Amino acid sequence: MYSAVKRFFITGPQGKSQQSGHFNDSRWWLGLVLVTAIAFAATYLSHVSFIQHLGLSALTIGIVLGIIVGNTLFSRMATHTDVGVDYAKSVLLKAGVVLFGFRITFTQVAGVGWQGLITDIAMLSLTFWLAVQLGKRAFKLDEQTTILIGAGSAICGAAAVMATEPVVKAQAHKVSVAVATVVVFGTLSMFVYPIAQGYLGLSEHAYGIFAGSTIHEVAQVVAAGSAVSPEAANVAVIEKMLRVMMLAPFLVLLSLWQNRKQAKAMNGKATAEQANNDKSNITIPWFALLFIVASGINSSQLVSPDITEQIVHLDGVLLTIAMVALGLRTHIGAIRQAGVKPLLLAGCLFLFLTIGGYGLNLAIAHCL
Predict the structure, then answer these.
(1) Tens-place pLDDT, residues 178-199
(2) How far is CA 363 from CA 60, 119, 122, 232, 315, in A?
(3) Residue 3 forms part of a structural domain
(4) Is residue 17 in some structural domain?
(5) Source organism's superkingdom (predicted)?
(6) For an engineered disulfide with 135, which of 141, 249, 297, 310 has Cβ 3.0 to 4.6 Å away?
(7) Report field, pTM of the whole predicted structure over 0.85
(8) Structural domain range at position 198
(9) Domain count, the chain
(10) 215-262 pLDDT tens trace
């Protein structure tokens, strides 16, 4: 595991170590200081009671602060901090995805049973499929934006968008657009679900599975579940974490799908030898596989609860830093240029998650 971490988080994609170069470059240090300072400000704000009531996480606040600074002050210091900011946006992001696995245990997965597992698989698959179909055919969006919005809606909100970015190699403003849509409709669902609970005819357990399988962010799931009852909140969080665990296989399949499309695009233009080389060069998001390894370590209790708690805290810091770095590299003009179509796509997915998700939850519960 150590060699894999070293290879993919320190040495870079070609395996050539750039560690000493980073340490000797003031732009790396200054960039990390900048994003860390903004990230700590975002974390502090996320604990303010008013913001907690809104259900806004440090990740969301981090990207907002990053965009504000990025479009005001950052241009004056970019040449002195760019290396560290880009390092945070790529390497620290992958490290955060790996450590996210320490939030989950395989026991939690077993707790919701086959109903929860089948519901999550169905909702993830159908939501992402619908995103690709609507994004490309109905709204004529570019593939990167479509995939990012689909991943954020189908799996775990901003964290899924951030984890998907290295696989599709999306531009910063497209990631920011996707995160914004997830925040808007995830926040809306946080208020709508508890109100609708009285009219849905669901038990607290069934409501928990419904909320966990359809709401975007973990923090939003906690809020929507807690507004009903502690039991609903517990079931919702476990169901949501099972959905989060599917992030790793999703990223692997997405990477294989991307490479297959590239191979088809080259059909008839490459020799058999070149085709074999392409197969051997398939990009595997190893950080996603290490995510599963981290979940396994957490499940086996090889690490004490106190250390696990510290790792989870560190993970939150790393992901917030990555969001800040992304915001710093996002230009408002590029977001405006994206137009209303990304929001419309996310809105359609929100309707499917709520209405279609409710129907699918009832159908699966009835069948099992």
Answers:
(1) 988 887 888 788 889 988 988 9
(2) 34, 10, 11, 20, 37
(3) no
(4) no
(5) Bacteria
(6) 141
(7) no
(8) 25-271+278-367
(9) 1
(10) 988 778 877 887 888 788 878 888 888 888 888 889 889 988 888 877
